[in-house]
Amino acid sequence: MKKSVKILALAACAACTFTLSACGGCGGCAGATTYTITTSPNWLIRGGSADELDASSYLLASKEVATYSISSSGGANDSYSAEYSKDGSYTATLYAEEYDWNSPSIPQSLRVENKTGYVYVYETVLEQPGAFVMGGERHEFINKVTTKSCFLSAGNSLRPVYSLQDVECTTPNSLQPASLETSFVVMDGRYETFYSYDGVSAQTTYSAVITYPDSVSEISGAYTPSVATEYTLFDAASLPVALRSMTQSGTHVFDVYVPVNGLSARYQAAWGSASAITDDGWADVISVLDAATDSGYLIAGLNEDGERAYSVTPVTVSLVSAMTGPSSTYYFASVTDPDLNACRALPVRIDEVVPFNLGTITYTLNGISLIGK
């Protein structure tokens, strides 16, 4: 039970906004025909599947910074409710840097002498006030989560190199708690992972204090899992970028290493159909895309009415298991032409289902810019 709670504690407020279900196990996926995924640098105007990360990459000198507003809707739980404030914020930053495989910060057993290379770096910061409400009682909290992940180029399947997750969060504990005090669990933890150069092993060090309804657990230690897999592997903290790199059709199956659990799990991303967005429900996103087009970061042509036209493609991410748990749905700017990827496959909205029928948290793009380092 406590292992499941640890997963949920990270999941419900993960800065990667990817709900990692507490259900475990890896299984087959109907319709899956390949083990590996072709990843492309869809954050570039001109993409392709070649190794795109080299000394000429603009992301070595600049950072793409995306900011998101947060809203929520109530769920069907009749026992208690979760409220998430509109004052919350979420920021995702993508850039590149040189990585030294012999750095003193890397565990000795994973170091490689005279080996350096370029990696992408993806950082997220989430600060989310909220409250659990039961009857006339409220428990207020502020979830704060930061992540950093490093991974290789899309030409190298975004293979993970490093990740860090700092988590301070309060998360729902059960479907029908007996009291407000038993409705939530509090986690304050740090998980740092280094991957081997060949990508087949990893080392995670962790320390956390988890406050359960009836006890406090202080844990620390290290995991040394084998992450070798026939499937493409991503770290949980880099998953939004991994989804961004995928072909926006069909269903893709992959493995995700979850540092908070020290294990990998199998997930699938089921892509829907692209659709044009209009002012009806998308006005704020359209305004952001227009501003980015005006600044020159995006390119948008005109439709037959002389207006800029944008489309998005949804993808639902879920565990491959008989018990899938809650899923998240991302909406990416559609890639209609990989050779002229006008909107850089930007993630423009994320709908994250809160466990135990407590509703949905929605992250909506409210700013995108390229800034110098």
Can you offer a commentary on this structure?
With 373 residues, the chain is mainly beta. The protein is built from three helices and 17 strands. It has a 17-stranded mixed beta sheet that branches. The longest helix has 17 residues.
Task: Give the tally of β-strands.
Answer: 17
Residue fraction in strands? 35-45%
Q: What distance separates the N and C termini?
A: 44 Å
Low-confidence stretches: 1-34
Compile the SSE list and pairings:
Layout: H1 2-11, E1 62-73, E2 81-84, E3 89-100, E4 116-134, E5 137-151, E6 160-172, E7 184-195, E8 202-211, E9 216-223, E10 233-235, H2 239-244, E11 251-258, E12 263-271, E13 275-276, H3 279-295, E14 311-319, E15 328-333, E16 347-353, E17 360-372
Parallel strand pairs: 10-11
Antiparallel strand pairs: 1-3, 1-17, 2-4, 3-4, 4-5, 5-6, 6-7, 7-8, 8-9, 11-12, 12-14, 13-14, 14-15, 15-16, 16-17
Which terms summarize this structure?
17-stranded mixed beta sheet, 3 helices, 17 strands
